[in-house]
Amino acid sequence: MNRSSFTLKALTAALILASTTGMVLAKGYKGDYKGEACPPPQMLKTGWYLGAQVGYDAYRVRNSWEQTGLSMNPVNSATGWVGGLMLGYGMMMNDWFYLGGEIFANGSNAENSTSIDHTAPLAHYTKFETNATYGLGLLPGVKMTDSTLTFIRLGWNWANLKSSTTSTSALGVVSTGSNSNTSNGFVFGIGMETLVMDNWSLRGEFDHTWYSDYNYSVGTPVVGTNSVSPSDNQFMLGLL
């Protein structure tokens, strides 16, 4: 056997061995750096999850006040911090479609006070406060990458709200009234979740909730009624 023939056979054998080894390593996600295995790519987890969230509430509140000889319906903004816990379950339905369900409970300190002076000494003072909010939601989403998900929220929320009014008549008579009400309504939102490490992911979300109206009377005997129409824009950041 001459040297050129031996060299050709040796080169052919080496190429076959290299290609075979490469396919085996690729199939097993293994590299050839010092014989160590390359880890598989990080992926969002499915199944049960528990999370904490914090954010900002921006309520839009319309107070429709009706009184003999007086009618007004100012729109006010009630803002404050909000935070709480969530529990949910999510899974990939196929290679790209995600579906999850979730319940949550939050506390909020959003509030607003409004004072309207008419012909002195006629005055009208209204206060709006929030407390606990809770709800449930359906979260369909689309996998953007192995570690990032975009989703929408379709759900129903409840909020413990309180409104109070103090009205002073032209004769200086002070009348008061209040109502603590649990309003509920449909919520629509959009968000994004991404894996940060191991079993931990970070979520950012914007939601809007249309809450049901409520009303109450002011004074004994009644001097007027106030109807409250609230809605909420909410910005949340969560760790799951």
Describe the protein's architecture and organization.
- The protein is mainly beta.
- It is about 10% helix and about 65% strand.
- The chain contains one helix and eleven strands.
- It has one helix spanning about 5-25; strands at about 45-65, 70, 75-90, 95-110, 110-115, 125-145, 150-170, 175-195, 200-210, 215-220, 225-240.
- Strands 1-3-4-6-7-8-9-11 form an eight-stranded antiparallel barrel.
- Strand 7 and strand 8 (about 175-195) form a beta hairpin.
- It is elongated.
- The model is unreliable at about 15-35 (pLDDT under 50).
Could you give a short description of this structure?
With 240 residues, this protein is mainly beta.
What is the topological layout?
Blueprint lengths: L2 H25 L19 E21 L2 E3 L2 E18 L4 E12 L2 E7 L5 E23 L2 E21 L5 E24 L2 E11 L3 E5 L5 E16 L1
Antiparallel strand pairs: 1-2, 1-3, 1-11, 3-4, 4-6, 5-6, 6-7, 7-8, 8-9, 9-11, 10-11
Order of helices and strands: HEEEEEEEEEEE
* Strand ordering within the main sheet: 1-3-4-6-7-8-9-11
Helix content: 10-25%
Largest β-sheet summary: 8 strands, antiparallel, barrel
The backbone outline, from C-alpha atoms, is elongated
Distance between the termini: 68 Å
Computed over alpha carbons, the radius of gyration is: 31 Å
Poorly predicted segments? 13-33
The overall pLDDT, averaged over residues, is 84
**Structural class by SSE content:** mainly beta
Number of strands: 11
Strand content: over 45%
- Helix run count: 1
